[in-house]
Prior knowledge:
The chain is 40% helix and 12% strand. The protein is α/β, with parallel strands linked by helices. The chain has 2 domains: 9-128 and 197-213; 139-184, no CATH class. It has a 5-stranded mixed sheet with strand order 2-1-3-5-4, sandwiched between helices. Strand 4 and strand 5 (115-121) form a beta hairpin. The longest helix is centred in the last third of the chain and has 16 residues, at 142-157. The radius of gyration is 18 Å and the shape is globular.
Amino acid sequence: MTLRRIRPRILIVEGKDEVRVLAELLELAGIPWPKGNEPVDIEEKDGISNILERGFIETTLKASGVNAVGILVDANGDPTLRWEQVRNRVAESYPGFPEDLSPAGAIHVVADKPRIGDWIMPDNVRAGMLETLLLALRTGDPMLHDHARDVTQQAHELGAPFRDTHREKAELHTWLAWQDPPGRQLHDAVRAKALPPAPPVTDAFVAWFRQLFAI
């Protein structure tokens, strides 16, 4: 009989990029991440709509052995709206859940329930996504960073069909296409320290993660 693994710490994210990138980023930031014995289970749900589906967060919080749950989603165009959507899913079960999202992220504790936390990428304040945070971690010549931004804008003006909300995603992958080797996947670029964690960009996120999961 296969024993079901109890997962005491769970971080819910939108997609596979977050699963891979965050593990590499957090390990470089000083949190050991041994394969097969990860300190936190990062669970991707293939989009924000699945995370916000009625009952999903509630069921996760009630699972056997869980003591902390984090919810990490992209702000995209409106961090306040995204915060309200997540807050509305948990406030009924967690009295006193913060009405406003701090730049330090949200962590809330209720007696006899798992700790719950929320982080809106990139920094709980700006519009954007995981790639917005990663753009600020790029190494190398800042002039090349600026050039990647400019040519991404030019491509958009010439009819490149990426959505405006994905502009920074396109810019980051443009820059990665010019590296050696070209076109690394995001988690590989983090592992290779082309996108290393750096204060003050990642300090608040790492501090939130450590506090929520007591690491």
